[in-house]
Design a protein that fits this description.
The complex is a heterodimer of chains A (158) and B (195). Chain A is mostly helical. Helices cover 72% and strands 0% of the residues of chain A. Chain A has seven helices and no strands. Chain A is globular and about 50 Å long. The relative contact order of chain A is 0.11. Chain B has two domains: 63 residues, no CATH class; 123 residues. The chains are: A mainly alpha (158), B mainly alpha (195). Chains A and B meet through α1, α2, α3, α4 and α5 of A and α1, α2, α4, α5 and α6 of B.
């Protein structure tokens, strides 16, 4: 295994829950999560050589994961070896999964960019960083988040 | 602004996210040892796909000319088909120009979505032109075949009609879906960047 491959394997290992969370929030079923997960890993691998620590690794991973989930053409899938996680967040019935599903149901009703913003906010990422990842000003992030929160609140009142 | 929002509810959401991440942290990626192999395999498949598309673009015109000449089609029909093929190749190139893989991987969400959406929009605009063209071309194709008479010609015409109807239906459905998705994303980008 060369240095780049070792580094890649380590990055995936350390950030798999972050990547999988993003994929899960943009999916409707387990197959879709696994397809997106694999697609994100491919894009991370393709971008590894050009990354060279230009930005924070977490920001870079979010950027690639969210870009992939928002823009990927779900029809154009090239399947290779299945790369998935054992957790079945759509079918398991334990209390934790029920809580996770509640979160998924709410977030999944939002539009793609709103989904991205709220996910980053829930991860305690600063408004500045969210703005940088999404490509809008910090002020814009704040006002957008306010609207998203209102949307989410109205959903819970429904 | 924040005080209007039910803080407790969003704290619950944060906790739910933590539960999710804790759950995932305990998991291992299936076939972890095959991860590198899968990545390389997939990237190489994508490269192969690009090579096939380039070959079709490069040899498509001479191949069509040869096949249609062999089928005794009229010269005008062959020329129109070749010109359409050439326009399709040039249009595809222009549509995808500027969509560099590196930009897509490192750009911000709005920048990347805008580029991809623009590409999809141009693709859907192409379908708006190409679908009516192909329907007319198809009628002409059937006419050219029927001119030759014989059972073989009839068989080809029937096969052509069935294929044409299926292809047309797929094309129209793709056009509608692609256009709807592009418009939704463009609308959201506009909304996000207008403030």
């Amino acid at each position: 295994m060369n240095t780049l491959e070792t580094e890649f394997a380590q990055i995936v290992k350390e950030n798999k829950s972050t990547i999988y969370t993003v994929c899960y929030m943009f999916s409707k079923d387990t197959d879709e999560v696994n397809d997106l997960f694999q697609e994100v890993l491919v894009n991370l691998w393709k971008g590894m050589s050009s990354f060279k620590g230009r930005s924070d690794i977490r920001t870079w991973i979010y950027r690639i994961a969210l870009n992939t989930c928002i823009s990927m053409d779900r029809k154009k899938k090239i399947k290779t070896i299945p790369l998935s996680m054992d957790a079945n967040l759509f079918q398991d019935q334990d209390e934790d999964t029920k809580q996770v599903k509640l979160l998924h149901n709410r977030i999944n009703k939002l539009q793609p960019f709103d989904k991205a913003i709220v996910l980053l906010w829930l991860e305690n990422i600063s408004y500045d960083e969210i703005g940088e990842i999404v490509g809008v000003s910090t002020k814009n992030v704040a006002s957008r988040l306010f609207r998203i929160k209102e949307k989410l609140r109205s959903m819970s009142n429904d | 602004m924040e005080k209007d929002i039910n803080i407790e509810e969003f704290e619950t959401m944060k906790k739910q996210l933590e539960v999710l991440k804790d759950k995932l942290d305990k998991e291992t990626i299936i076939n972890e040892q095959l991860m590198r192999k899968a990545m390389k395999e997939k990237v190489s498949k994508l490269h192969k796909e690009a090579i096939i598309i380039a070959c079709v673009a490069l040899f498509g015109i001479p191949y069509c000319t040869w096949v249609f000449s062999f089928m005794h089609m009229s010269e005008l029909f062959i020329i129109v088909t070749d010109v359409f093929f050439a326009i399709a190749i040039v249009y595809t190139y222009i549509t995808h120009k500027g969509l560099k893989a590196n930009d897509l991987l490192n750009g911000n969400l709005i920048e990347v979505s805008y580029k991809i959406t623009r590409m999809r929009y141009l693709e859907s605009r192409w379908l708006r032109f190409s679908i009516p063209f192909i329907i007319c071309w198809f009628g002409w194709f059937i006419f050219e075949i029927m001119k030759q008479n014989g059972d073989e010609a009839k068989g080809m015409a029937i096969g052509g009609v069935v294929g044409g109807i299926i292809g047309g239906a797929i094309g129209v459905s793709k056009y509608r879906k692609s256009r709807k998705k592009s418009q939704e994303i463009l609308l959201q980008i506009k909304e996000l960047t207008s403030k």
